[in-house]
Amino acid sequence: MRSTATGPRAVSRALFLGLLVVIFAGALLLLLEGKAVGASGQQEMTAVVVSPGDTLWEIADRFSPERVDLRVVVQELVELNRLESKVLRPGQVLQVPADRF
């Protein structure tokens, strides 16, 4: 009959494996986040004030490099600014990642 290991060595091994899981999960979250971080540790943003007639598509096009799928950029702007609607209001301020666009 095999006994279950519950000694100090088994506890150390379990703690080590738990720590590895936490580190791996944190690294994975950072990779999935995919946001550039400035020297201050926060993502650098540019504030864009919406002018009359501006649309998310125009702003995405204005701040994106060429040959980028604007649908992806528009969705990123919606998520980043927590927009409930894609309709913009004049004077509204949008945050745009400075290094992404």
Task: Give a written overview of the molecule.
- There is one protein chain.
- The protein is mainly alpha-helical and 101 residues long.
- 44% of the residues lie in helices and 10% in strands.
- It is built from three helices and two strands, in the order H-E-H-H-E.
- It has helices at 8-33, 56-62, 70-80, and strands at residues 45-49, 93-97.
- The longest helix is centred in the N-terminal third of the chain and has 26 residues, at 8-33.
- The radius of gyration is 22 Å and the shape is rod-shaped.
- The termini are far apart.
- Residues 33-38 have low confidence and may be disordered.
Keywords:
mainly alpha, single chain, two-stranded antiparallel sheet, 44% helix, 3 helices, 101 residues, rod-shaped, 2 strands
Number of strands: 2
Strand content: 5-15%
- Helix fraction by DSSP (H/I, runs of at least 4): 40-55%
Q: Compute the number of helices.
A: 3
- Average predicted local confidence, pLDDT: 80
Distance between the termini: 64 Å
Low-confidence stretches: 33-38
Q: Within the largest sheet, what's the order of strands? A: 1-2
Spell the H/E element sequence: HEHHE
The radius of gyration computed from the alpha-carbon positions, rounded to a whole number of angstroms, is 22 Å
The rough form would be described as rod-shaped
Characterize the largest beta sheet: strand count, sense, and whether it forms a barrel.
2 strands, antiparallel
Secondary structure category: mainly alpha
